[in-house]
Amino acid sequence: xxxxxxxxxxxxxxxxxxxxxxxxxxxxxxxxxxxxxxxxxxxxxxxxxxxxxxxxxxxxxxxxxxxxxxxxxxxxxxxxxxxxxxxxxxxxxxxxxxxxxxxxxx
Length: 106
Fold this sequence. Notes:
Layout: H1 2-10, E1 19-25, E2 28-36, H2 69-79, E3 84-89, E4 92-100
Antiparallel strand pairs: 1-2, 2-4, 3-4
């Protein structure tokens, strides 16, 4: 959660709101973190989960990360067999992942 929230914060339009949403459907919870700002180019979306990859960005005056955060998120989620993804369009980017609800684990 920290890496996804920090990523959303670093790439949000100044003064915009970061949205965090949790929904539950049966045995699965879906967590979404959405920011408003520059979208990720569609051709870069598959690579953003790769270690050290950083999509070209407009100079915002903020320091760029190392390109490790999303690779760490991917590694943790895959070790737990969790579904995850990103949607980036219309000046909004939403990262999401799903997790089992503790009461429904058998």
